Sequence to fold (374 residues):
Amino acid sequence: MLRTLELAHRRKTVRRFSQEPVDLNKIMQAVEVAGEAPSGANYQGWRFSIILNPNIKRTIREASEEGEKAFYGKVSGDWKEWLNDKKLSHSKPYLENAPVLLVVFARNDVPYSTESVWLAIGYMLLALEELGLATVTYTPSDTRLVENVIEVPEGYRLEAILPIGRSGGDTSKQPRESVDSLVKIYR
Amino acid sequence: MLRTLELAHRRKTVRRFSQEPVDLNKIMQAVEVAGEAPSGANYQGWRFSIILNPNIKRTIREASEEGEKAFYGKVSGDWKEWLNDKKLSHSKPYLENAPVLLVVFARNDVPYSTESVWLAIGYMLLALEELGLATVTYTPSDTRLVENVIEVPEGYRLEAILPIGRSGGDTSKQPRESVDSLVKIYR
Fold:
């Protein structure tokens, strides 16, 4: 079996983390993998903050939850149902409890920077899985609230926060559609 | 060494393809890997068209180049310089010459669909590298021109076109910044 298929199959979103500390080298390796991704005009418009400091984590959690309260007050339809099903709420304890927060920034005013950064996050998720580390790709509902309380590299914006650690619970992977249902072939 | 790091290091963008046919099974495997990616509210808002038909490829090339002509007429600054350096122009022969075009669609009106689709493309690029296949992630400058001449799944939009095949030339990988320059650590 392809190694990438094995990793992709195995990898699942985790929102509860063990308190076991994470080897910083592993985070650097995951960033190294992400940094090899292609990007629009090779701008490599990504930057990463590795947050180990408990005070900064708490601040990020508080600013994130403020935005989530507003969001959860207005979300509706299928999305609301999915959030209820998954017992998700405005509360984001993993932003405080995960051993590491990896904050991902995208550069403004370069071509395809959102696309490039998320492509690089795709690389990173497979690397983290190979390293035995779990995560969830969390984007605050109101990124500005978080940008106001952390250091943002000049000319960049917050794109995602990845809490990283060993999985601290047994969550099952969400089901996936069959490949055949995703594809149409034109011969 | 991590397998993901090895694949990410080795993988480079290719715009010239050998005429050797590509095993359709391999494309399906790459799609299977992509389909394992996480997505906003697990919507899996991605669909893929595998184009083997030469007439459809030519039509896609023509519609794409029409948009590129307008774009190349107005691009300026660093981006223009990069395009000149790389000898890129409005001409996109790989859209006609690559053995396979994989057209990637993103679902409208679901949360974080652009982000999710590009994350899945990240998974796919590592899978293609493992399968010995090369590609470039091409987004037409004017996606509507291409959407007008191909079948677009209802409720989806064109996000990218990946010409896929074995590499047909010796291009070197664009340099990458060092990991240390990408990261700031908060202890």
Remarks:
- The two ends of chain B are 27 Å apart (CA to CA).
